[in-house]
Amino acid sequence: MAILPVERRPLTLSERSYLPQIARGLKTTLKHIFAPNETMEYPEVQPEIPPGYRGVPTLVTDPHGREKCVSCQLCEFVCPPKAIRITPGSVPEGSGREHIEKAPEEFKIDMLRCIYCGLCQEVCPEEAIFLQNQFSLNGLTREEMVHDKKRLYELGGSLPDRHFKWDKKKAAAEHGNAH
Amino acid sequence: MSQTAPSPDLVTVNIDGQEIAVPKGTNVIEAARKLAVDIPHYCYHEKLSVAGNCRMCLIEMGMPAVDPATKAPIIDEATGKQKVNWIPKPVIGCGTNVSPGMHIRTTTPMVKDARESVMEFLLINHPLDCPICDQAGECKLQEQATGYGRGYSRYIEPKNVKPKRTVLGPRVTLDDERCILCSRCIRFSREIAKDDVLGFTERGSYSTLTCFPGRELANNYSLNTVDICPVGALTSTDFRFKMRVWFLKQTNSICTESSVGANTVVWSREGTIYRITPRQNDAVNDTWMTDSGRMLYKEVQAENRLTRPLVRGVAVTADAALDAATELLRSAQPGTVAIVGSGRSSVEEQFLTRKLAEALGDKVGAPVSVVSRVGEGDGLLLSADRNPNLRGALITGLIEALPPTYAPLAALAAAIEAGEVKTVISVGEDLAEAGLSAEQLAKVSVIYLSTHANATSQAAAVVLPTLTVFEKSGSFVNQQFRIQKFAQAVPGPAGAADDLATLSALIAIAGGGRGGPVSDRNAVPNGRVETLWKALAAEVPAFANVTYQEIPDDGLLLDATPYASLPFVEGETLHHKPTTPISPLNERATTSTAA
Amino acid sequence: MIEFWLSLPPLLQATLKGLAVIAVIFPLAGAGSMAERKVSAWIQGRPGPNRAAIPWLVKIPFLGRALQRLGLFQLLADGLKFFFKEDPVPGHVNKFYFFLAPAVALIPALTTVVAVPFGAWLDGDTVVPIGLANVDLGLLAIFAVSSLGVYALILAGWASNSKYPFLGGVRASAQFISYELSMTISVLPVFLWVNSPGMRGSLSLARVVEFQSLPGFWGGAWFIFTMPVCALIFLIALFAETNRQPFDMPESEADLVGGFHTEYGAFKWAIFFVAEYAHMIVGSGIFTLLFLGGWNPLPWVSLADFSALIGIAGNPLVVGVVSIVIFLLKVLFLIFFFMWVRWTVPRFRYDQVMVLGWQKLLPLSIANLFFYLVVIALLQERL
């Protein structure tokens, strides 16, 4: 590839005066004055949350409203700012869910620490923690900004489940050995 | 390495092309370990008999080819070396002992294939409940499925269903589905704990680990089965679902249950201890420890833990408590102060106790008693002497003779009754429990360094809260005269001061001063221990050439001969025969054969 | 009413006029700042300030909401803020001059208004301009006083005793001096035309408007048509003199943080702001008078004709109001034009400003002056 020197075309007088260019510029800006606004007038207008958005981390229940978290503490482990604190506990016998054995006694996410990275959601083997659509969060005290288990479930609600892993486990246990 | 074996009881083998000389009778797994070649295994455990039932350690083995007729080596034309006849099928590494010229291959496709297949079989019925399994993070099955597994499952049939929460004993819960039938726990119970209660029932995939009818896994070593279980089948009821192991910080410590001095690891997170497990020391406890020793951590957060200094039962500041102690010691007539030292104190604390005694007395020093604790030894890892550091008291010169095994404080009680002793300084010993009556305690002013509240702390004039073994660093001398270090695992509670600092303050008071600034009392003990060891090395003959840093993790054997004539109460335990005191020379031979 | 006004003592008249100026220019400057924000927003596709609200005023149906959307309450909020916010004085400044600078900025800005006639009423057939003072010096007085404004910037820059304000002050002095030359020369043809030989000479701006309301094709034509180059040079110089983009060298946020007013805050800063807008308003007024026919509604349509056309000629007060409205509309358009240009033309580099001022505009204005000298001389001979 040879380099071809191209002579710069000499500017005409009108170009050198810049006045036509400025006039064209004025035309463009004038057009924008009458163009509709780009601004989204939050909070009256709420933004459309794209799929995969990483909002406030929440705990979700399965479609039957049952706790999914088994307090494996992987999220606590992976959390880069160490915002998650879990107190593991066991599921009491006779609760109908003792086949799951383990459930969080307390689950706290310090939203002053959380960086919304979504690693907790990514690491969760039970699909129990999700960063959902809520993006606006505030509180009046530091304590308020530490979400406890109750608040996390309130924020999370129910999400569809494709596996019902523990139901299958229970059914298998009731059915007994296959052979 | 040369082809010729350097000594007759060494055997040269070739593992993955590397040659190594190992003692006769070594199996392939151990030989490979010396070359840092990892042969995965589940059922094999170096302290247990070989069962060879997990098949994970399959390797390829070959012997040098010899002409059957002439016994002459057959030389491979291509390489010029002796040909190797490879066995066409893999063999297990744990059950194969080395023989001269043996060739081992662990990286061939056949071995890889064999491992993959074994992993696949093991995982067929293993539940995928790692998220709730306490073993996750220290699970051999997890590690080796990652390292040697296929990576995906071809098995679509329903998995086996077995009981999930079988209570095997008071401290052990079994999740049968997770069991891979390696039989380590059975062999441990039979061979080490000598309490043969476990066994498999049923056949094939119905095989289940159970206790024999009417028995339970209740011996004092039952939790070792949890340790050696390669999967999460056997779980500690105490630790179950409490914390994931990857959060836990491991700190080397020494069990204070008895003079065996079992090496332990304290697992803690953010100042809370979650469990204690044994640490391998082939000269002391192999890889085992007692169940009772594992529960000692509960004293750290006990209800009756002392966190405020007390003067006559009233909580005061550390300064005020030291002032009260100063007042007591200053007003005491010379010769009326007695000291009760402890076989539970560390070597360093005992040394400072001795210094305190010297500082208090006019010429001869204040009288020192040490409380003996004698129980029944179990011949394994619980010795009769329940003081972890009685020998430390002898070596540091705190006491010259063994304390009486019965009524250890009788002499002190008599002195109190006679009015000869008006003030007693107790370094961590509960005087009421050790035999002083309430009346006797009422007759004297007690300065009590204690971790927990008890009858003595209620009666004491001044109570100075101190630290438990988990909250400080130091060393113990066990029954073998082996000095072993323990490190601080968790910080002490606010308000409790380090024993060494408190003792130093008391020494300063006894010497006429007021002691260093009280803020020093909470100084990190690590640095203090090492500083103190300069004085220890200078004043204690046995430590003349020892520095704290140089004591290895598995302890340093001290010369026991000066104390050979003393009637120690310990009976025989693992690696300790009291009748023939172990000297540093023949000790190594003992350990190597035991291993 | 006029008699009553004239019967007042001159000192009181002057005081009242002065107060009137402050009362008009201050809100106008404030409205200018508001307009600036709104126009900027519209050009950038934003709604601009539209949130501030006065509790029950905003409840007035339609109007309240419309005012809120227009950001009018924001103006009040900003004004209040400037009154009440902390007014820090950095420790390193020269206090006396630091305090003096805003006052120096405001005084010429407000004083120049006096000489600007902003409307006219008809006394019979004669058009009488409305202004605070119809001085014969006219434009010369305005130029003289408004050029004092640069001292405020230099003073502020120097008194702040820190790097950026100092650079801003230095730039201000150089820029203002450079463009004052071309500005003054560019208006000379207008006055050559107005003051033809043989007539009494005057620099009165009202007289310039009078000339643009003469009958006939040449008489009714605004000077922007007959002297476009003059108008262009004057406009460019006006941008530079009012410190507006693309000539805002003294302030240039991008490279000088805030230029001469970096160290200023709260009300003192607001005074600089008002002064700048006052300059803009006065400058726009002068441009309107010189080149856009003043209070004449359209080219070739004088105020007198227009009043006759819509039938208000008999009512001098109405004519006066109409003329003021016409004048103000032109001024407002020019202010809008200032803002429009601000978001169209990027800021010049400092050397470009100097090149444009000295090497382009000055020769051009001198050439232009000679051209009109010749043209007017030739025309004069013919007439």
From TrEMBL, chain A:
Residues reported in the UniProt entry to bind [4Fe-4S] cluster 1: C69, C72, C75, C124
Major enzyme class: translocase
Cofactor: [4Fe-4S] cluster
One example GO MF annotation: 4 iron, 4 sulfur cluster binding
Alphabetical list of SUPFAM superfamilies matching this protein: 4Fe-4S ferredoxins
Cofactor notes: Binds 2 [4Fe-4S] clusters per subunit.
Catalyzed chemical reaction(s): a quinone + NADH + 5 H(+)(in) = a quinol + NAD(+) + 4 H(+)(out)
Protein origin, superkingdom: Bacteria
InterPro entries from the UniProt entry: 4Fe4S_Fe-S-bd, 4Fe4S_Fe_S_CS, NADH_quinone_OxRdtase_chainI
Intracellular or extracellular location(s): Cell membrane
Domain 4Fe-4S ferredoxin-type as annotated: residue spans: 57-89, 105-134
Alphabetically ordered keywords of this record: 4Fe-4S, Cell membrane, Iron, Iron-sulfur, Membrane, Metal-binding, NAD, Quinone, Repeat, Translocase, Ubiquinone
One term under GO cellular component: plasma membrane
PANTHER family in alphabetical order: NADH DEHYDROGENASE UBIQUINONE IRON-SULFUR PROTEIN 8, MITOCHONDRIAL (PTHR10849)
Subunit structure: NDH-1 is composed of 14 different subunits. Subunits NuoA, H, J, K, L, M, N constitute the membrane sector of the complex.
Biological role stated in the UniProt entry: NDH-1 shuttles electrons from NADH, via FMN and iron-sulfur (Fe-S) centers, to quinones in the respiratory chain. The immediate electron acceptor for the enzyme in this species is believed to be ubiquinone. Couples the redox reaction to proton translocation (for every two electrons transferred, four hydrogen ions are translocated across the cytoplasmic membrane), and thus conserves the redox energy in a proton gradient.
Name of the protein in its database record: NADH-quinone oxidoreductase subunit I
Automatic annotation (TrEMBL), chain B:
Required cofactor names: [4Fe-4S] cluster; [2Fe-2S] cluster
Annotated SMART domains: NADH-G_4Fe-4S_3 (SM00929)
Ranges for domain 4Fe-4S His(Cys)3-ligated-type: 110-149
Record GO terms (molecular function): 2 iron, 2 sulfur cluster binding; 4 iron, 4 sulfur cluster binding; metal ion binding; NADH dehydrogenase (ubiquinone) activity; oxidoreductase activity; quinone binding
Matches recorded under SUPFAM superfamilies: 2Fe-2S ferredoxin-like, 4Fe-4S ferredoxins, Formate dehydrogenase/DMSO reductase, domains 1-3
UniProt-annotated stretches for the region Disordered: 574-595
Primary site of residence: membrane
Sequence similarity: Belongs to the complex I 75 kDa subunit family.
Protein name per UniProt: Ferredoxin
Organism: Cephaloticoccus capnophilus
Automatic annotation (TrEMBL), chain C:
GO molecular-function terms, A-Z: NADH dehydrogenase activity; oxidoreductase activity, acting on NAD(P)H, quinone or similar compound as acceptor; quinone binding
Record-listed E.C. numbers: 7.1.1.-
Record keywords, A-Z: Cell membrane, Membrane, NAD, Quinone, Translocase, Transmembrane, Transmembrane helix, Ubiquinone
The protein's enzyme class: translocase
Reactions listed under catalytic activity: a quinone + NADH + 5 H(+)(in) = a quinol + NAD(+) + 4 H(+)(out)
Cell compartment(s), UniProt: Cell membrane; Membrane
Family affiliation: Belongs to the complex I subunit 1 family.
Protein function: NDH-1 shuttles electrons from NADH, via FMN and iron-sulfur (Fe-S) centers, to quinones in the respiratory chain. The immediate electron acceptor for the enzyme in this species is believed to be ubiquinone. Couples the redox reaction to proton translocation (for every two electrons transferred, four hydrogen ions are translocated across the cytoplasmic membrane), and thus conserves the redox energy in a proton gradient. This subunit may bind ubiquinone.
Protein name: NADH-quinone oxidoreductase subunit H
Source species of the chain: Cephaloticoccus capnophilus
The organism's taxonomic lineage, starting at the top: Bacteria, Pseudomonadati, Verrucomicrobiota, Opitutia, Opitutales
Gene name per UniProt: nuoH
